[in-house]
Design a protein that fits this description.
Largest sheet: 5 strands, parallel
Number of strands: 23
Structural class: alpha/beta
Strand content: 15-25%
Strand order of the largest sheet: 2-1-3-4-8
Helix content: 25-40%
Length: 508
């Protein structure tokens, strides 16, 4: 575990950070790489006056020439969003609203989560792909040409998928390519390419099933399910691939990295990863104080899932506290020792956080629901998109009626102790006139129902004691001058003694 409370100043000074600096794109290729002309047409067509350009860290080197070129061809005032509030894959609507922007143009990798506040345009990178080597690697990974395969890819390689299909479709008749789908009426994507191959996109009239998830849409043949398909991913190993593998955990995955030209069968043990997530669920069942981390302010329906989580946690007999702290790290969360577990509300790609270095575990909304909602059971289904947990979602499971609930107990698989799931059924809902003192029973025994206050009371150090009215009032006095190694009132003798080690040894 990383040292979350302190760090050596000497290590900070001597630390060497390796940074891969991306070279600036040639000015003549800016329009080709970033679709500047189509972006200007989008801005002029809707008559936007203030436009926010959001870049990921690796694309900031090209932000200034892009903004200058767009300003020359439009009447809009541009603002560059560099440091995003949360993940760079999410649209930072909060930062855009700070400058009063009329719309956002998002550049680079994106999770394609739905946004509803401002009009949005996606511009993806056009990263190079060696199609011949990619097709050759595909043939080696799938020697059986009758295999049902779905092609998934990083959004920055969408421009090359149509050409890849041209090479593979004559040999693989059951090949299906996913398409990018930008949700929302105000969302636009000018890098999206319409498929020219009808064989890779069966029509709904043929009885095909349409599956749309994580901004990808593909068609399954009639009579087949997602588990009957293998997945071929074009892109680097990262959050997108991990998200796909966790969601469709019964499908086999292969990948091709266009940068290293390496292809492989993904050998990561999904079952082992799922068992680690189940261990986090058991920790959530043992927890009595839950911290809700707001990891996004731009994904649609994030307020709805917060309210649903609060009610689910309360019905399970636990206390919840909400935190909004921007990008989370070990040091930030280590400040709240009274929290037993955190639940992170973020986009699907950022919600699967590896919390091995954190002082307390960090789980997803789905895992917290499994721990607190007894109507939801742990199964092969794993949900990373919290919108599917809301009413009307494909994975929504309502809470049991309070009349059916009883004070059940089970045994913790971690501590072996008995635990009760409905300790606060008799506690009323929170109101504006709530108090930390309540009556426990008819004997008028006073109990403290605030879990965080109970934790604070058990600490040996309670913070600074003000002692109002107990400390005598004194006049302000002049403090020391100088630096810590030698203050002025200490005189020259002490400085000479400190600076000469031989004199110090003789004195001793």
């Amino acid at each position: 575990m990383a040292d979350a409370f302190s760090s050596s100043s000497e290590n900070v000074i001597q630390r060497v950070v390796e940074v891969a600096v991306k070279a600036n794109a040639p000015l003549g290729k800016l329009d080709e790489l970033y679709n500047i002309k189509k972006t200007c047409d989008f801005i002029n067509q809707h008559q936007f006056k203030k436009v926010a350009l959001q870049f990921s860290d690796d694309l900031l080197v090209d932000s200034i020439p892009i903004a200058a070129e767009i300003e020359r061809n439009s009447n809009a005032k541009l603002f560059i969003l560099g440091d995003t509030s949360y993940g760079s894959c999410c649209v930072d609507e909060v930062a855009a609203e700070h400058v009063g922007a009329d719309c956002i143009v998002h550049y680079g990798s994106a999770c394609l989560s739905a946004s509803k506040r401002l009009p949005l345009m996606y511009v993806f990178e056009k990263r190079p792909v060696d199609l011949e080597k990619c097709a050759s690697a595909f043939r080696e990974l799938y020697p059986d040409t009758q295999t049902h395969i779905i092609i998934l890819y990083d959004v920055n390689y969408v421009h090359a998928i149509d050409d890849l299909l041209t090479l593979l479709l004559p040999e693989y008749p059951n090949l299906v390519a996913s398409e990018l789908v930008v949700e929302g009426e105000q969302c636009f994507s000018h890098n999206q390419i319409k498929r020219q191959h009808k064989d890779a996109r069966p029509s709904e009239q043929d009885g095909s099933q349409v599956l749309c998830q994580f901004g990808r849409q593909f068609f399954l043949k009639s009579g087949l399910s997602i588990t009957d398909y293998s997945m071929f991913y074009v892109g680097q190993e990262g959050a997108s691939l991990r998200n796909f593998m966790m969601t469709w955990n019964r499908c086999s995955f292969c990948s091709f990295d266009p940068i290293t030209m390496a292809s492989r069968t993904e050998s990561i043990s999904v079952n082992r990863t799922l068992m680690k997530r189940y261990y986090a669920i058991e920790r959530a069942k043992d927890a009595s104080v839950v911290g809700i981390l707001v990891g996004t302010l731009g994904v649609a329906d994030y307020l709805s899932i917060i309210q649903q989580l609060k009610e689910t946690i309360r019905r399970a007999g636990k206390k919840s506290y909400m935190f909004a702290m921007g990008k989370i790290n070990v040091a930030k969360l280590a400040n709240f020792l009274e929290i037993d577990i955190f639940v992170l509300i973020a986009c699907p790609e950022n919600s699967l956080l590896d919390s091995s270095e954190f002082y307390k575990p960090v789980v997803t909304p789905f895992e917290m629901e499994v721990a607190c909602n007894k109507s939801r059971e742990w199964s092969e289904e794993y949900v990373t998109d919290f919108r599917h947990l809301l009413p009307g979602g494909q994975s929504y499971v309502p809470l049991p009626d309070q009349q059916e609930e009883c004070d059940e107990t089970d045994v913790s698989l971690i501590t072996g102790a008995l635990r009760s799931q409905h300790l606060l059924n008799s506690e009323p809902a929170e109101s504006s006139s709530s108090s930390s003192l309540v009556l426990r029973n008819q004997m008028l025994t006073v109990a403290n129902s605030n879990s965080a206050a109970s934790f604070l009371a058990s600490r040996s150090w309670h913070g600074l004691e003000r002692k109002l009215g107990e400390t005598p009032v004194a006049k302000a006095v002049e403090g020391r001058r100088g630096i810590a190694i030698a203050y002025e009132e200490e005189g020259t003798s002490s400085r000479e003694l400190t600076s000469n080690p031989q004199d110090l040894q003789q004195t001793i």
